[in-house]
Amino acid sequence: xxxxxxxxxxxxxxxxxxxxxxxxxxxxxxxxxxxxxxxxxxxxxxxxxxxxxxxxxxxxxxxxxxxxxxxxxxxxxxxxxxxxxxxxxxxxxxxxxxxxxxxxxxxxxxxxxxxxxxxxxxxxxxxxxxxxxxxxxxxxxxxxxxxxxxxxxxxxxxxxxxxxxxxxxxxxxxxxxxxxxxxxxxxxxxxxxxxxxxxxxxxxxxxxxxxxxxxxxxxxxxxxxxxxxxxxxxxxxxxxxxxxxxxxxxxxxxxxxxxxxxxxxxxxxxxxxxxxxxxxxxxxxxxxxxxxxxxxxxxxxxxxxxxxxxxxxxxxxxxxxxxxxxxxxxxxxxxxxxxxxxxxxxxxxxxxxxxxxxxxxxxxxxxxxxxxxxxxxxxxxxxxxxxxxxxxxxxxxxxxxxxxxxxxxxxx
Length: 412
Fold this sequence. Notes:
Pfam family, one: AMP_N
Subunit structure: Homodimer.
EC number: 3.4.13.9
Strand content: 5-15%
Keywords: Dipeptidase, Hydrolase, Manganese, Metal-binding, Metalloprotease, Protease
CATH architecture of the domain at 26-198: 3-Layer(aba) Sandwich
GO molecular function: manganese ion binding; metalloaminopeptidase activity; proline dipeptidase activity
């Protein structure tokens, strides 16, 4: 990548918000493709398999609201976004394992698209914009891949199919007319590509930093303007305005949680049945969990503060218990430290604080054995972050088994 592009994105990740958010270099997604290619080739070599075939992913499709003609705001499928950075719906993407060439397949749009939705871009536009080796139309997938394949027999497709253990949903393997002309591998790609998403490059970290910076600014702006008598959704509105106006963040990483009073005890408050609509009262605590998304990469920030700006003694006790646990984990973290041990440390610090404040009575070791801490922290210590709020979604089966043994209710 050109030095100027690196410097621009690096500077933007540490500078204040502006009305001109930085342009994201497509080299980021080129690098992601190269990372996958290297990992997949290594996996095939370890399995004594030839470096033949194509990685083939199907991008996301626009969705209408039920049976209406209202089209919901499109956001690209995350694995496809990771590899290709394509904003538009209806695309397919392929990587030739033998040559390393990357190929996009664009939908062939009807002429009246230009009247309603704007200019119909030529394939050369997508080749230049997304820095791929070649671009064809989706109705040319079969012929192009057959022509490009250098192996024997039917061309082999490595399709994305695997379980997200957070949602228990499976990723969708690509489908297209004529797929019966190909051999299909549904098991190899998902674990390799998912592992590639775990460790972020410097450019990915810079984008996450941008999303976090603008989200942090927005949280501070909301805190400054919060007062009794407001509605929770007004806090959400201020956050959304700031991140979009000054950060160019059209999407959020997840549904905003603007919880006050007793709503703060509901982990995923803010959904349609609990829509951030309570009136803030003097003496309430506010718990705001909101994060903006910038160029597919997200943030996740939770902060808690008294609506009137002043803690009561009980509120201060709880707040500082959590803060002490947070600081203890940060101080103890280093390579080789167990995630589960850090969760136990957080629980222990919180229980100690509650015992000192006479909220709990009993032996601390006994409380730890009986998992009393799970009553106050019924979720995991944290999660990875990236293109998805839980990025990549889920954990390997062995890790999930170890977590289950410690009786996590969920990973938050």
